[in-house]
Amino acid sequence: MSEQHFGLVDHSNTYPPHQDHREEETFELSEHGELLYSEHSNQSFSTKRPTYEDGNTIDWLREENAERERQRCLKSQRGARGLLLPFMDASRMWFVIVLTGIGIGVTGAWLDVLVKWLADFREGHCVHGFFYNQPSCCSGFDAGEICTDWQSWGQYLDIQYILGQSLLHSVVYVALAVVFAGSAAILVQFYAPYAFHTGIPEIKAILGGYVLDAFLSPWTLLIKALGLALAVASGLSLGKEGPLVHVACCMAYLLSGLFKQFRHNEAQKRKLLAAAAAAGVSVAFGSPLGGVLFGLEELDTFANESDVMWRGFVTSVIAAMSLQYIDPFGTAKLVLFQVTSITDTWRAFELVPWLLLAVAGGVLGSLLIKLNVRVALYRRHSALNDWPLLEVVGVSALTAAISYLIVFTRVQTSELVANLFQECDPSKTDYHGLCNPTAMWENVFLLIVTALLKIALTAWTFGMMIPAGIFLPTIAVGASLGRAVGLLTQGLQRAYPGAWVFSSCPPDPTVPCVSPGFYAVIGASAMLAGVTRMTISLVVILFELTGALSHVLPIMISVMTAKWVGDACGKDGIYSVWIAMRKYPWLPPVAYRDKGETAAQVMTPIERLVIIEDGCTLGELDNLTRKYNFHGFPVVRDAELVGYVTRDKLIEFLFAREPATLSTRRCTFSSRRSTAEDNLENLSNLVEEAILQLRKEQPQELVVDMFQKLNLRQILFTHEGRLTGMVTKTDIVALLNLHFPHTAALSELPGRP
Amino acid sequence: MSEQHFGLVDHSNTYPPHQDHREEETFELSEHGELLYSEHSNQSFSTKRPTYEDGNTIDWLREENAERERQRCLKSQRGARGLLLPFMDASRMWFVIVLTGIGIGVTGAWLDVLVKWLADFREGHCVHGFFYNQPSCCSGFDAGEICTDWQSWGQYLDIQYILGQSLLHSVVYVALAVVFAGSAAILVQFYAPYAFHTGIPEIKAILGGYVLDAFLSPWTLLIKALGLALAVASGLSLGKEGPLVHVACCMAYLLSGLFKQFRHNEAQKRKLLAAAAAAGVSVAFGSPLGGVLFGLEELDTFANESDVMWRGFVTSVIAAMSLQYIDPFGTAKLVLFQVTSITDTWRAFELVPWLLLAVAGGVLGSLLIKLNVRVALYRRHSALNDWPLLEVVGVSALTAAISYLIVFTRVQTSELVANLFQECDPSKTDYHGLCNPTAMWENVFLLIVTALLKIALTAWTFGMMIPAGIFLPTIAVGASLGRAVGLLTQGLQRAYPGAWVFSSCPPDPTVPCVSPGFYAVIGASAMLAGVTRMTISLVVILFELTGALSHVLPIMISVMTAKWVGDACGKDGIYSVWIAMRKYPWLPPVAYRDKGETAAQVMTPIERLVIIEDGCTLGELDNLTRKYNFHGFPVVRDAELVGYVTRDKLIEFLFAREPATLSTRRCTFSSRRSTAEDNLENLSNLVEEAILQLRKEQPQELVVDMFQKLNLRQILFTHEGRLTGMVTKTDIVALLNLHFPHTAALSELPGRP
Questions:
Q1: DSSP label of A607
Q2: Which of the residues A190, A685, B188, B747 has an alpha carbon 20 to 30 A from that of B125?
Q3: How many whole angstroms separate alpha carbon A468 and alpha carbon A236?
């Protein structure tokens, strides 16, 4: 009877399997994988649940199962313990959440103070105390009074000649930049190589299940925070936003290590990290809602997990409150660069320059990404790869030297942005002469030069051996361009107040019609959208800066246009590009659209799979586990799928056996087969419970969707009971990165040859 | 060889299947289902894709497939058409989005104006124009001047005696309440029965895939908006928030009907509705971010779909801006009840009364839900079921009569809440004597009476035959309680200013230490959390009211405590309870935790399934489709799973056959079987491509998770190729509603006997 139905058995793979398979399961960097598993095979398998090593991907289903078991165990305790233990459990979680929030708020404030002090130190020092920065040194003086307590280096060394003073200032400026940046690079290179760069690509990968514990170590935390302060103070073209997210995650990781419930469960740990990441953004921008939406949009961590979102929200708010409570500059300002005196309304004609800015943001954002990739590839394949310190010193010297020449770039980037966002107000100081209408063309020229310079410098700096975020320099580029366009529009309106397009302006020429400061905001949002390809979190962050509901619409339009234009120039944002270059097993949450392909095109067909034939000897199983470090193997009998068994379960099972019996005893994974037969061991309890089977005619995008939503490691394909192939997460990651030519270009870990 | 492996065949079901199956596929209300399918079997099956009728659940996979095909078709057009058509496609979507935003903003403003006019009409009228409300009638007068243009009814009829005036006023007050509420009920009952209630449960079900087009018809839109204005003006204990969400969805549905791309695709239509729902909340509370987070948390629509979230954000902002632009009251206030003059800081001892309020909110919220369920069940099973109009008239008369007696309830609920949120300020009007310290006990007593009264009235009103939202009355209950507790705390602090607990208060007794207005906010947030069980969206909405970051923390703590207490008293929020009572096929997005059960406990085992045996005659298939209106049938051969075929595909196939051939020809669904054999028709192309197979040992919560995340209709369970059972969405919905005793208590549709 069976012969009649299954007469077409043609895939009857025999063991040993074909040799021309591909590595369908190695998320582990291959050298790590070997290391990990060769260690494993020689050590005891006393613990049921494996601990993951760096380079692995966690098994979400297993982690969730373990947590479920633990919870059940807690709740099944008798009497008061049954009530108290779950409560203690929740308390520990909230303890970590709240402490992380406070910690990152304090760290953010401390960083601000340190950066300000270091940056001021490049210009002079306080006579009554080395450790005061300029504002606190001069805090005893009234406004307008000249602060004599603060001495520039020229005054200190008593140099009388203007030329000598300028020379000295510039030399100190450049030298200290080099010293700061160099120290940061030395710290990073010798103590915590993972503290380099922004950290957001790694955090996205980790939240998706990648294991990289070294990235979150206390040492990394310390070096990243300290190095960040030095790097920012050195005046390099970088920001603190991304690294702050990294620092927040390190902090949560450190605190979570205190409790077994997180230490022993990678999934629970990741839920804490997600909450911490939101707090990092909250502190960086002083925008708690922006932090939550960043977690939602960019880190894609809260999908279907409102608990995690709520924790992220709590951490964000607590972090923002801590920062506000400490109030590092005594300004009671939470946000980095508050926008003030926004005029109430905007005119329809302004949409034209704003759309221009949006298009420019999209194009320049893509350009910045492309340049950055080029530089990263060049760095990897040139002599710079061996001399990261020299690169940092060289670039910081160059940056400082050029920056000193231009009035806008000489100050700290955050100060520049704050000034560019400011509207002209006769009662306030006119920063850098931006409000001088006679100097319009000079200003426009200088602003455009600043923008182009910052693009070039940022493209180079983002990826060097120092902590570096890309948000702030991007904002600076956008704000400069935006202010330039704003000045031009204002000039045009002042020159032709009677023109038809300007008829909506107030007739009184003393009432300003165009607000160039808001053009800077628009430019910044467009540029950010072009570089990061985020939408809603950017709008919320910038909305929290401006505070005016009426101005959300222009920001929204510019963000969207910039994203469209950017997507047309190149599909990926800067973080996705870096994830692809480093080859982290991360599935972007974007909707994948196939062109009619089915799963058959992406799956590894049965002919190229390493499979276990039911009924083989234990010795053959042993060989298999030694030969291949895949995560697991499908088990078939006459091409009919029996199940899927993971390699570590097999190793654990085989380790407990006498080596002598291995070659004689045979195995079966089917519970239906009798074990009365001699020499047959029933291994059916090793078979995984949760295995998804699909048909290979399924559209590719549905397969991708399942991997994205269910955090799967593999899907098996069957046709009427027979195994036809398998798709793993690696296959899907590769599929989604097909369009990007430099995938895996930087896949080695930093600091390792 | 096969005999050896498959010797345990014991499930060999023969056709016809057992009769003791359960209806595993009827989402369709059974009478509808019959109707739908009997119509179908007699009409042509020329169109490939079925149109869904009310009561069905859409097939997401099929809809997404159709959209994918359409997109591919658009993009494959040659030349300019290939560029233009996708652009036009996107433009249509944005056209609907923007127009819905503007529409709901305008509707919100218009509703405000109408309600104000109707409510003022209960007190008097304007002498120089019937259609002016009190503020616009008196707009020519200076502050302090007595407005002679506005005449109360007593002045109009020239009644001199105070007693007569009072009597007249109260009679007009009650009579007009009855007239307004009665008109609303008549409109709803005779023209649009779906316009009753809040609408949020239905919208949640619709967004999850339920088909209920009558709920979104233009007629419902009109009646709901008009009826809502009348109901709110009648002074019944209800709010406009939920109904506004419904109105927004109706609007989006109406506009989406203009374009084929939405008319013919239920999934695309639902994505528009999700965006519109966010806009409804945005207008109701003047809180665009709150709207987005409401969509995210309560409607669970944006999970993994950042496009949809972005659209929701755009619609929310546009709606809020339209409302602000129209500015119905000329106050330039966007939010319903802006909180002003919040003191900068709060003291630690205040956490004690706030926690008390949070616990009270959780308990009373649960009580309100339980009362509301009781009333709904009583209404259904008593004579009231046949006299909905009478019920509305009676309750509105009662509400008006009682409300007139208490100073707090006589005004509109929104006005009451605004006053309760207001801090005492000597320079402003003292509403209702709330700021009079000598009347503290009277105020506390009256506030508590108000709260209890509102709970009772709301529990009855929410579910009557009128449009009614539950947000505003809940806020009113919470605010009354909160203000009462605030007054008590303030009184305590004033009585014992030197006590140890109050040592953190400023020593100067004239400086206020306790702000009772903020206690009202805390009370409102706790009560809302108790009733709706939302968290983050509530905090954001209330944060947008207060605007002070420092006050987010107490709001957060109270929301969370209230939710915890509420969950301990009863698991479901008010909307979930109504969904369960109406038996909509909606899966709550909550994480389901099993107690160690596997899928085997929830699945229908093969013995109780209606299955198709491969090789049966076409006549048998025909019988099957006529006998059972399930969505589809698994196909097996000797218990081995061949595939799954939907009923409508079978009907379509059979309809094209000659009736005479049905009894002789046999069918196979296996592509492996040769059709050379006579009388064998190969139906393998009817088999569904996307069928999920799992093992029945899989933990139940993973099965639930898959249904929640992948929008599935069914999962098949196999063991080594053999079908062991099936789980459908209905099974999962039933599983998640097991704890609720009144599931399906109101499952008939309103207005149908």
A1: G
A2: B188
A3: 9
SS3 A381: helix
Share of chain A above pLDDT 70, in %: 86
**B-chain residues near A722 (CB < 8 A):** 721
Regarding beta strands B150-152 and B124-126, do their DSSP bridges make them parallel or antiparallel, or are they unpaired? antiparallel
Is residue B264 within 8 A of residue B299, CB to CB? The reply is no
Contact residues on chain A for B689, CB-CB shorter than 8 A: 598, 695, 697-699
Contacts 24+ apart (CB under 8 A), A185-189: A185/A227, A185/A388, A185/A389, A185/A392, A185/A393, A185/A464, A185/A465, A185/A466, A186/A389, A187/A223, A187/A226, A187/A227, A187/A230, A188/A223, A188/A227, A188/A465, A188/A466, A188/A467, A189/A388, A189/A389, A189/A465, A189/A751
Could you give all domains of chain B from N- to C-terminal order, each with its CATH number? 125-158 (no CATH), 599-736 (3.10.580.10)
Q: How confident is the model at residue A342 (pLDDT cuts 50, 70, 90)?
A: low
Instruction: Summarize pLDDT for B213-257 with one digit per residue, the tens.
Output: 888 989 999 999 999 999 998 888 888 888 999 999 999 999 988
Going by the DSSP 8-state scheme, the letter that residue B693 receives in this structure is E
The complex's ipTM works out to: 0.77
Q: Is residue A416 within 8 angstroms of chain B, CB to CB?
A: no
Measure CB to CB from residue A695 to each of B691, B694, B710 and give the nearest one: B691
Share of chain A above pLDDT 90, in %: 16
What residues 633-662 of chain B have any CB closer than 8 A to a CB of chain A?
637-638, 640-643
CA torsion through residues B33, B36, B37, B38, sign: positive
Whose CA is closest to B707, among B606, B586, B597? B586
Rounded CA-CA distance A408/A451 in Å is 10
Alpha helices in A264-412 (DSSP H): 266-285, 288-297, 306-326, 351-381, 388-405, 407-410
A712 touches B: beta carbon within 8 Å: no
**Is pLDDT of A128 > 90?**
no
Q: Residue range A681-697: average pLDDT? A: 77
> Does A309 touch chain B if contact means CB atoms closer than 8 Å?
yes
pLDDT at A435 (0 to 100)? 79
Q: Which residues contact B176 (CB under 8 A, 6 or more apart)?
A: B121, B122, B234
Whether B699 sits inside 8 A of A709 (CB atoms) is no
CA dist., res. A164 & res. A154, Å (int): 8
Query: Exposed, middle or buried, A140 (CB in 10 Å: 0-12/13-18/19+)?
Result: exposed
pLDDT of residue A438: 81
Question: Pick from A219, A224, A220, A251: which is nearest to A99 by CA?
Answer: A251
Please check whether residue B6 touches A, CB under 8 A: yes
Q: Identify the H or E element spanning A667.
A: strand A666-668
The whole-angstrom separation of Cα B257 and Cα B96 is 10
Mean pLDDT of B550-554: 79
Q: How far apart are CA A713 and CA A648, in angstroms?
A: 15
Considering only CB atoms, B692 lies closest to which of A552, A694, A708, namely A694
Predicted TM-score (pTM) of the model is 0.82
Number of Cβ within a 10 Å radius of residue B73: 10
At A586, give phi and psi (nearest 5°).
-125, 130
pLDDT at A683: 78
From chain B residues 156-195, the ones with a CB under 8 A of any chain A CB are none
The distance between the two most distant Cα atoms of chain B, rounded to a whole number of Å, is 108
User: Comparing B746 with B451, which gets the higher pLDDT?
Assistant: B451
pLDDT band at B301 (very low <50, low <70, confident <90, very high): low
* B320 chain-A contacts, CB cut-off 8 A: 549
Q: For B14, which DSSP code? A: -
Q: Which of A275-289, B421-435, B496-510 has the highest mean pLDDT?
A: A275-289
Closest CA of chain B from A668, distance in Å:
11
